[in-house]
Structure formats: C-alpha cells, structure tokens
Amino acid sequence: MAGRFPTTGGTWLMNELGIKSIISTSRDSKLLCLQRFVRMFAYGASTLILALFLTNLDISDRKIGLFMSITLWGDVVISFVLTIFADGLGRRRTMLLGAILMAASGIIFAISSNYWILVAASVLGVISPSGNEIGPWKAIEESTLSQLSPAAIRTDIFAWYTLLGNAGTACGIIICGWLVEWLKALDGWTPLRAYRIIFGIYALLGLVKFALSLMLSNKCEPEPEKQVYQPVTENSNVEMD
C-alpha cells in the first residue's frame, strides 16, 4: 500500500499491508473503523433473515416488496437530510443519534409484528435490506477520517476502513446463519423466535456503536474555517478611491 521498501521483510510487509499505518493512526480513527465493522456486522446479520422474518409473520410477497422499496427510499431521504445537517448538528451527535435509532429499530423488530410499525422502524433505524452500506454514517465517517489522517497514510486508513466493513458484513452473515440454525434445532424454538433473537442482537450492536461514538473526541468535529486577512496596502487604497 505505502510503496516503501525497508531492509527487513517483516517491516516491508507491514508497510505494504498498511499495518503500521493503522497502528500509528489516532484513537479516533481506530474507533471509526471499529464502528464501521460493528455496523456492517449488524447489517449482514439482519439482511440474511429480513425477508424470512416478514414471511413468518404471514406478510404477503407483495407487501414484502413494498416494505423493501419504502425502506430503501426512506433511507435515501434520511441520509440526505442527516448528511446536510451533520456538521451543524455535530458529527458525534449525528453518530450517536444513528446508534440510538439502530438500537430502537432492533428492539421493535424483536417484539412487534405490526407491518407499518416495522416499516417505520426499518426506515428510521436504517435497516439494510441488502446488507450493503446505507444511511449517512459512511459519508460522515469518511469525511472525519480524511480530516484526522495525515496525507502520508490516508490511503492505508481508508483501505482498512473498507476492509473492516466488508469483513463485518461477512462475519455477520456467517454467525447469524449459524446461530439461527442452532436456535431452530432447540426444542420449542420456532424460526420466528430465532429471528427475533437476531434483531435483539442488532439492538445490542446499536448500543455498542453508541458507546464507541461516546468515546470519540472533539477532533472529529469539523475544523473551523480559517479566515485569511489581506493586508491593506497603498495600492489597494488608491483602487478604492
């Protein structure tokens, strides 16, 4: 990654993989990368069972399709609004708000069977129907990482940020699948009950993301614009006259 060739093979490999960069980067950058892993883990886990969950609630295929469409369009609107106001509201506050909504939507999915309540929770809690990144969080995190990371290691940090996101999705899908199959094999456990457990875990991951957001420092907020003052010269006074 970094394009450097030290004398020792171990050091060269660490440089090429960006390991030294991620180790040396700031605490806030590490927390942002960890937040992405947690969020994408939750998205991967929920997307695997979302359609099955709705089917087990005896919701028709047509209404499930409507559910997915409303969720995607709603997420676009939520993302647009929060991205615009993130810097004014505060990046950390926006991320805290997202974590709260994520936890709340997980709780609602774990206990409710009402179609329209689930739709509202899916939109406001930014449930991912596809397992891909949705919502304004990626844009906010990337702009913050760009601000925090020195130019020399910025590409390495973004590479790790992307890698951890993909790893989170994959881990969420695998572990969710294993857990659901294990729960369904237990006596008295229905598929619906197993799916609700997954959404309960989704809510817990929202609380983990909330805790990680609380640990971020003021350095994550936008830097104030620097005003450049031009000295008044004799020539400029003549032009003004």
Written as H for each helix and E for each strand, in order along the chain, the element string is: HHHHHHHHHH
Shape: globular
How many DSSP-defined strands? 0
Measured by DSSP, the beta-strand proportion falls in under 5%
In which range does the helix fraction lie? Answer: over 70%
Class by helix and strand content? mainly alpha
Distance between the termini: 57 Å
Radius of gyration: 23 Å
- Largest sheet descriptor: none
Uncertain runs are: 1-5
The residue-averaged pLDDT reads 84
Number of helices: 10
Report on the structure:
By secondary structure, the chain is an all-alpha fold. Helix content is 74%, strand content 0%. It has helices at residues 9-16, 19-24, 27-56, 61-89, 91-111, 115-124, 137-148, 154-184, 191-214, 234-240. The radius of gyration is 23 Å and the shape is globular.
Topology overview:
Blueprint: H1 9-16, H2 19-24, H3 27-56, H4 61-89, H5 91-111, H6 115-124, H7 137-148, H8 154-184, H9 191-214, H10 234-240
Helix pairs in contact: 3-7, 3-8, 3-9, 4-6, 5-6, 5-7, 5-9, 8-9
